[in-house]
Amino acid sequence: MHDIRSIRDNSAAFDAGLARRGLEPQSQAILAADAQARAAQMAVDTMLASRNAASKQIGALMGKGDKDGAAALKAEVEKIKADLPAQEEAKRQADAAVAAILSTLPNIPAEDVPLGENEGQNVEVKRWGNPREATGAKEHFDIGAPLGLDFESAQAVSGARFAYLRGQVARLNRALGQFMLDTHTTKFGYQEVVPPVLVRDDAVYGTAQLPKFAEDLFQTSDGRWLIPTAEVSLTNLVREQILDASAPLRFTALTLCFRSEAGAAGRDTRGLIRQHQFEKVELVSVTKPEDSDAEHERMTAAAEHILESLGLPYRRMLLCTGDMGFSARKTFDLEVWLPGQGQYREISSCSNCGDFQARRLNARYRPEGEKATRFVHTLNGSGLAVGRTLVAVLENYQQADGSVIVPEVLRPYMGGVEVLKP
Length: 422
What we know:
ligase, ATP binding, BirA Bifunctional Protein, domain 2, Ser-tRNA-synth_1_N, nucleotide-binding, 19% strand, cytoplasm
């Protein structure tokens, strides 16, 4: 959510920020709705003040024996009471009109985010590892089938974009998730959380998936939403709170995630890259504004550490204005090398959202020595997407005989197993 006071004070800068996102100016429509909301608020305040003043005068007049004057004021108070609900409703509608506009507008990009229309204008910041040659390399669904990766059974049970992981592949998948959690909690100081995966409207609105992206989500018959990422549950831990921001809050969780993939028709229809149900280790941080840029780097480094520990070549990309997510002001994507596809594919996205989500959540802190509160900054990232990491391990550690070498850091989680064999 955007700061309406900032838009009032500098509407040109706000429109310029939206223009970097490829959007038309919106400030005039916002300010017009805001003027109506402020006028409605003033009308309510005036009516309440008149009612209170008249109520006080009634007592004084009665004390003087002026019954006629008191009766007139009582009639005035009764009229105000009768008219007030309609004026309060007008105020609610005016406020809702402002919120309706603001809730559909994305975050303003940070100044150092490159201008661009799509992923073709993203900027490579860093590259690590030596990619394995793609010649002769198989894709993960061919490697995994003899090891327990079963799409056909899932198709019969659930339809497209689901999978059964069985036997060796299931154990490797579990090992990956546990290794990620252990690393983030012990090395990087994230607090492990087991959060709900069903949430209410307010929770999904708070992290900005609603109202704009409802079609990307799954909703239950009782109106709750299946989380598309644990970012929703973890970030909502601080909603409606005034926090002690002396140190960043850091949360991590391994959860199931659910996405309808409404806009992904025809893309990645085979394999684990784009599933309706998948596992992901999420990282969420909550900081003071002045600390969020450094925390963004730290979070991204934590995700990179997982890839480096697994020996998976990757590159870090700074996303351009046209490829960033709705709530982000700056995003780094980590793309892992997949020799079966002969290309880098996204495996983590780490975003600094500034105070965009905090305004929706009303998550604040009180700076030391100050009475007023300020909004915190929130950050989120994948640390990592477990299924995509499984894909990367299968493809990068595949052998000519169909076996897959288990990365050394995972072997303690695999009971010492060093090789998966068909």
